[in-house]
Design brief:
It is a single chain. By secondary structure, the protein is α/β, with parallel strands linked by helices. The chain has eleven helices and eleven strands. It has one domain: Rossmann fold (3-Layer(aba) Sandwich). α1 crosses α11.
C-alpha cells in the first residue's frame, strides 16, 4: 500500500498563514505518517479514534526558504485516507484560530471537529470534556500532538489527559532552542517556566546536585526528568526522541518525543521514523 504523503502543497487562500522554516516539513511528515498508521491499524479495533492538537496553529504554513505553502499538523491529520472519528483543536492566538476555523469550515465540514480558542495550559479541562467518553460498547483511543513554540507547556496539561484516558503523545520538546539557550535565565528562582514544564518546583536542587557542567548537561537533565514524569503515569520507559536540526548549520533545535503505554504504539512510531528524510537520535 502506498504511504500517505504528509507534504500537502496548497495555493494561497487569503487567510492568515504564519511563516515557518524549512525544517518544519520533517515535523509534518512525522506527525502525518503517524496519524496514517494509527488510524489504518486501529480503526477496526476501537469504537472511536480521537485526534487532539493542543497548539493547532492556522492549519497552513508558508515555508520561509521557498515561499511554498503547506497544510500544517491539524489539517494534515484531517487529510489522511482513514480520518479520526473526532478532532479536538486548541489554539490561543486569535489570528491563527480564525484562519483555522475558516479552513476547517471550508474544506473539512464533513468531519466531527471541536475548535477551542485558548491557551491549552489554561483550558485543558475543556479539552478533556470534549473527548468522547469510554463506555461499554464504545471504546476510545486518542492520539495527541503537542507543538508549542518553546517550553511553554505545563506538565499538568499532559498529566490531565495522560492519567485519565488511553492516549499516545507526540510532543515537541524545545530542549535546545529554548532550554539550553536560556539556562541562566531559568536558574533564577523567580522564573517558573521549567517548574511548570517539569511539574517540579524543586528541579534546581536536583539539577545542581547532578550536573557538574550545566551547559552540557541541561538538555539531558530535562529529557531524563520528563521521561521519568511520563513513566510515573505508566508510559513505557523508553526515550523515543527524533531530533530536528537546522538546515543552515545542522544545529540541534528540538525533539519530537513519542510516549505510549503500549508497545504497539512504540512499534508504530519506529516504523514512521523510517519514512522521514533524516533520522537523528538524541545522544545522551
Amino acid at each position: 500500500m502506498e504511504k500517505f504523503n504528509s507534504h500537502i502543497l496548497v495555493e494561497s487562500d487569503g487567510e492568515f498563514t504564519p511563516e515557518v522554516r524549512e525544517w518544519s516539513l520533517e515535523k509534518y511528515k512525522l506527525v502525518g505518517s503517524y496519524c496514517d498508521i494509527f488510524t489504518n491499524s486501529m480503526k477496526s479495533k476501537w469504537g472511536k479514534l480521537v485526534y487532539i492538537d493542543l497548539f493547532a496553529g492556522a492549519g497552513r504554513a508558508k515555508i520561509f526558504e521557498t515561499g511554498k505553502t503547506y497544510l500544517s499538523s491539524a489539517l494534515i491529520a484531517m487529510s489522511i485516507p482513514n480520518p479520526f472519528s473526532k478532532y479536538i483543536l486548541c489554539e490561543a492566538d486569535e489570528d491563527r484560530f480564525i484562519a483555522l476555523k475558516n479552513r476547517v469550515k471550508k474544506d473539512f465540514s464533513h468531519l466531527d471537529v471541536t475548535l477551542l480558542n485558548g491557551d491549552s495550559n489554561q483550558i485543558i479541562n475543556k479539552v478533556f470534556e470534549s473527548i468522547p467518553k469510554f463506555k461499554k460498547g464504545e471504546t476510545v483511543l486518542t492520539f495527541c500532538f503537542v507543538d508549542p513554540f518553546s517550553l511553554n507547556l505545563h506538565f499538568n496539561t499532559i498529566e490531565t489527559l495522560g492519567k485519565r484516558i488511553l492516549i499516545d503523545f507526540l510532543i515537541l520538546q524545545a530542549l535546545h532552542m529554548d532550554g539550553n539557550r536560556n539556562l541562566v535565565k531559568y536558574l533564577k528562582e523567580e522564573n517558573d517556566k521549567i517548574s511548570n514544564y517539569l511539574g517540579n518546583e524543586n528541579w534546581r536542587v536536583e539539577f545542581n546536585s547532578n550536573c557538574k557542567d550545566n551547559n552540557a548537561n541541561f538538555v539531558k537533565f530535562l529529557a531524563d526528568q520528563y521521561l521519568n514524569k511520563m513513566n510515573s503515569m505508566n508510559y513505557i520507559q523508553e526515550a523515543n526522541m527524533h531530533q530536528i536540526r537546522s538546515n543552515e548549520k545542522n544545529l540541534p533545535l528540538y525533539y519530537l518525543s513519542f510516549y505510549s503505554k503500549h508497545s504497539t504504539g512504540i512499534d508504530f512510531y519506529k516504523q514512521v521514523e523510517k519514512y522521514t528524510k533524516q533520522q537523528y537520535k538524541l545522544e545522551l
